[in-house]
Each structure stands twice: as structure tokens, then as C-alpha cells.
Amino acid sequence: MASRKTLLFLLAVFSEFLLLEAVIINSSRGETNVVCIEAARNALLKFRDGLKDPSGRLSSWVGTDCCTWQGVGCNNQTGNVMNLDLRNINVDSTGDYEADVVALSSTYLGGQISDSLVDLKYLNYLDLSMNNFQNISIPSFIGSLEKLTYLNPRGAAFSGMVPPHLGNLSNLRHLDLFAWSYARQSCQDSWATTDWMQAVNTIPSLVELSLLGCQLSTFPQSLPFVNLTSLSLSHAGIKGPIPHDAWRNLCNFEILDLSENGISSDEGIEFVHGLSTCSNSTLKELLLRLNRFRGKFPESLGHFKNLISIDLSDNELSGQLPDSLGNLERLRSLDLSSNLISGSLPPPIGRLSLLEKLILFNNTMNGTIPESIGQLEGLSYLNLNLNSWGRTISENHFMNLMRLRQFQLFLSPTKTKQPLTFHVRPDWNPPFGLKSVVIGNCNLSTAFPAWLRTQKELTHITLKNVGISGIVPEWLWKISPQIEHFDLSRNQLSGKLPNSLSFSSSSVCSMVDLSSNRFDCGIPLWYNLAYLFLRNYLLSGPIPLNIGELSSLKVLAVSGNLLNGSIPSSISKLKNLEIVDLSDNHLSGKIPMHWNDLQLLEVIDLSMNKLSGGIPSLICSMPSLFRLVLGDNNLSGQLSASLQKRTGLLYLDLGNNRFSGEIPYWIGENMLFWRRLRLRGNMLTGNIPEQLCGLSHLHIMDLARNNLSGSIPQCLGDLIALNSVT
């Protein structure tokens, strides 16, 4: 016991030392008291010369004072270079994976790592993360940087062996060997898994270790458990059980992340039970999401009284939540989403006064939400979506939720004997100030809820299928400039819509969905929207001639209305358009000729209208188009040869029109990935070409009600993906 106290005391003293060092380190954005040492400047210049820097991130590395250079931090008393922070400047995710990859690849550093870094005798912080060093090895001389306390090469496309010289870094406290990178390097091609664990195991001061993405296959038993308090083995390919011998070594951990592995069945539950037997557990974060834990929710979880964060999402835990969760009085985040948990939320949950996030969406919880949830005065994010909650929600459920900013209660779309009903006074003034409210598939109110008017910071409003009727209040339209997501679909709302509005310009994903209501008007011109859904109600009149002004639109979906007139040519100005759905209306005239500027367009659905003429040749010039649905119109002519240029097409529906001529043979030669071909109800003649047998991915082929002759090719029976032929 004495030795442990001594160790903790020394660690505390060392932490204070690091804090003092941080105070006197000068960053490139601050004021310098001394210029950098010439030897350090020369070392950095030599290091820079070995790098590839296509975006000019190191353009500030000029002049005599290297302490003012981007990413360089110095001790402002001695001028010694202490910090070298060269992580990719575009590390913040936008939520769009492809966009993130593009952003990162535009600002990466690459090339070679010069051994001149050895001349930085006082360097204690080195971050090269999320760059692209194109599978070179971590240089062995890194092990000579004896002052290093922080080393982060994560996601920078290093590979090969982790140099055993890392064991020489006796002061190293943080090591991140995250294997995967935005350069699309695979984990299997990253760190070799034979000797590197031995190198890591010899680092005596190591406190934080991340091996995210390293393919380990089994839980490592030889980690340096003496000082280690934080371990991330997320997405590390661990299968099977965690050895019992490792459990006791984890008792002193503060952070344990085993997310996205293959720990399965009862093994995961047994592991949690085993950890709970630690006599003095210091565990603060337990992250076990995306495994295959199966079985009754572990009641023993309530024994971890120091826990701050729990993530058991995306497993197969079942049964009811135990009352013992109320013992976790230090808990700030609880994520149990995407499991099979049933029953009610236990009333002791109200004792978790520090809880900030409670996430239970996508379970099978079919009981009640206790009023004690209103005692969670620290709660800012509450997500109860996709369950089958019953009975009522009252003002008491929100009594002390002053900090609540995001509230989500969108029930599973299943019929229940006693659907959830809100019971609040018409003049209720909630204690919270929401930014996001999501309520769906329950009984909210017959009139538009007046309490929403008290929420001045709303950016996200979803009230879908909640039984509200009447007109949308004027005050709601006035706050449109701050709204990013607006969904009032599947209600009984009526009246007119404002002809012109501007929604939030701060989001590239602003969305409005007013489908399945009773509005009586034309298509409004609402600006700054990426997604506009106005399906299945009483929209009438022509599509506005200046629809092309809505330049930010990605999706325009107005099917199932009473729109008439022609499709305006200005639709070709919507250069960000990805999906256009004008189906099931009364549109007439010809399909516009000019589509070649719509390079992002993926889906065109103009079916069930009264369109005439042929298929414009430029409609097939769009490189992203994979679904073309023009069925149930009055289109005519022969099947355009321009269709064969669109080899990426997967779905083609030209049924119930007046097309004539023969089925072209090139359909079976060029369109090898087609999933659906519908040509029924036309005036096609001739034989069914045998080339159609080349459509090996075809699921549905419908050629019925034409004037075809000859025999049906026997080879069509060999299309194993085919589900339906008519």
C-alpha cells in the first residue's frame, strides 16, 4: 500500500511539473521573450526540407525566430524548442466522410522524417497525426528523443515495425499508434504485430496508450499495466474472451475503450461482472460499443461508482434496466442505444444529478418514462427515440431540466394499445431552452404547441405524426433564418405557405419536410435549403419559372400533388441537385432539353404525369445518374441511343408510354449492372435480344404488353439474380 501511495505522489508531482512546463512554453500565436536557439532553427529547416507540403502549411517557417513558426512551441525563458505540433489542420469531422477525406488530403504533410529532430534536445511533444507519409516506417531515431512525453503518429500512414527503440523513451506518457489513416491504408498493412508489443511494454512511464485499428486478434496480456491508466483498443480485431488474468490488471484503469471488436455473447457480460469485483475501481470511462454482447443487462454495472461515461451501444443486451444504475452518481454520459432493452426506465435514474447525456434510442422499451427524469438538472441531451413508450408525459417530467438543449422522443412506428400522450397546459412555460426538439408518432397536441414559442434558440424542429392540425403560426415562419431542420410531416396542418422564405445559411444540410398535410398552395421559393420535401398533399399550379434560384437544393421531392404545366427549363440551374422527384402530378409538355450542367444528379423520377415527346439526349450525359424513372407518361419515339452512354445506370423505367421500335441489343452489352428494366405497356416490336442474358445483376425485367414476337431466350433462365420476369 505504501509503494502505491508513493507512486501516486510521484505521478502528481510529475503532473505539476508538466503543467509548469506548459505555462512557460510559447506557442507560435503568442509573444516571444527570446528567439529560438540557432541549432534548433537549423534542425527544423532540415526537417522541413525533407517534407512534402503541397498546401504550404509550413510557409511561415522563414526568418530567424523559429519560435514564431506555425506548430512550433518554445520555452520562453531558454528558447529551447519544446513542442512540434504538425497534426493535419483539417482533423475536425464534418460528418461527411468523403468531404473529410478530401479536406485532409488537401492539407497533409508527407515525405521523409529527417534525423535532424535529434538535435531538438528538449522536445517533449511530437504530433504528426492524420498526415500521409505513404507507408514509410517510424524512424528508429525517434527513440533517441529522450525528453518526449507525448508521441502521436496516429493515422499518418506509417507502417512496418514499431521501432523497439521506443522503449528508450523513459519519459513517454502518451502514445497513440492508431493504425488506420485517411490515406485509405488498411490496418493489415500497418504495424507488424510480432515485436512491437514488446517495445511498448518497456516504456516505464506510459500512462495513455491507443492501439485503435491495430489488428491484435486477441486481448494483449503483456501491456505495461503498472502505470497505465488509459487504454484504447477500439477496432483492434479482438475476438473471443478477455483472459481472466487481465481483469485484475485493469482495476486501476481510468479509461478503457474496447469498442468495435468481436467480443461476443456471455463473454462480454462476464467481463463486466469481473471488472465490478475490483475492490477499489478507479474506472471513469467504460466504452464497449459495437461488440456482440448478448444477454441480460448486467446489474453489476451499478457497482462502478466512479464512472463518468458508459457506452454499451450497438450490442444485443436485453432485459430491463436495473435500479442499480441509480448508484452511478458521478455519471455524466450514458449511451445504451441500439440494443434489445425492454420495460420501463427505472425511477432511480433520477438520482444521477450530474448526468448530461442519456441516449436510449433504438431499443424495445415499452414501459413508462418516470417523472423522476425531471430531476436530472444537469441533463443537456436526452434521446429516447425508436422505442414504444406508453402512458403520459407531463410537465413534471421536465421540472428541473433547465440545461436541456436537445430533446428527442420519436416513437417506433408500431401500434400500441396506449400510445404516449403529452399532458401539458396551453400556457406552459418550460424551464429549458431547446436548440433541437424531435417528437414523433405520439399524441402531442391537437393545436400547434404554444410552448414552442418560448424556445428562442431552436435550429431543429421535428413534430412528425403527432396529431396537430390548423395553420402554422406566423411566429414560426419568422424564425426561419435560424432553422436548419424543419419537419412537420404527416399531420393535419392546412392553410397557405409563405411564398418566399430564407432558412439558415450556416448549414449545408438544411431541410424542410411538410409532406402529407393539407396545405393548399403552389411550390414556395424557400432559399438556402438543401432538401425540400412537399409530398402527398394539395400543392397545385405550375412549378415556378424561377425555381432555378434555389441554387443550394440537393433534393427536390414534390410527388403526389396536383402540379400542372410544364417543367421549367430553369431547373437546369440547380447545379447541386442530386435527386429530383416530380412524379404523380399533372405535368405536361416535353422534358427539358438541357441537363448536362447537373453533374451531381443521381435520381430523376418524372413518372405518372402527362409528359410527351422523346427522351432528351443530354439527360444521359450526367455522370452520376443511376436511376431514371419516366414511366406512365405519353412519351414516344424509339429508345434513344444516348442511353447506352449512361453505363452506370442501374434502374430504367419507361413503362406505359408509347415507345416503338425494337429493344436495342446494346442494353445487354453496355448496361451490365442494371437492377431493374421496365419497358411494359409500349409499342415495342421484334424479338427479345439474347444480349439481355448478359444482365447478370438484373432483379426485375418487365417487357409485358408490347408487340414482341419470336421465342423467349432460354438463357434468361440463367440469370440467378432475377426475381421477376413479365
What does this structure look like?
- Belongs to the RLP family.
- Keywords: Cell membrane, Glycoprotein, Kinase, Leucine-rich repeat, Membrane, Receptor, Repeat, Signal, Transferase, Transmembrane, Transmembrane helix.
- By secondary structure, this protein is an alpha/beta fold.
- β8 (about 175), α4 and β9 form a beta-alpha-beta unit.
- It has a 28-stranded mixed β-sheet.
- The N and C termini lie far apart (about 80 Å).
- The longest helix is centred in the first third of the chain and has 23 residues, at about 1-25.
- Among the domains are: about 345-460, Leucine-rich repeat, LRR (right-handed beta-alpha superhelix); about 470-640, Ribonuclease Inhibitor (Leucine-rich repeat, LRR (right-handed beta-alpha superhelix)); about 645-725, Leucine-rich repeat, LRR (right-handed beta-alpha superhelix).
Q: Helix and strand layout, with pairings?
A:
Elements: H1 2-24, E1 25-26, H2 38-49, E2 51-52, E3 72-75, E4 81-85, H3 97-105, E5 110-111, E6 125-127, E7 150-152, E8 174-176, H4 196-201, E9 208-210, E10 230-232, H5 244-247, E11 255-257, H6 265-276, E12 285-287, E13 292-296, E14 309-311, E15 316-320, E16 333-335, E17 340-342, E18 357-359, E19 381-383, E20 392-394, E21 406-410, E22 421-423, E23 436-440, E24 460-464, E25 469-470, H7 474-478, E26 485-487, E27 492-495, E28 500-502, E29 511-513, E30 518-519, E31 525-527, E32 531-533, E33 540-542, E34 555-557, E35 562-565, E36 579-581, E37 586-590, E38 603-605, E39 610-613, E40 627-629, E41 634-638, E42 651-653, E43 658-662, H8 666-670, E44 676-678, E45 683-686, E46 700-702, E47 707-708, E48 724-725
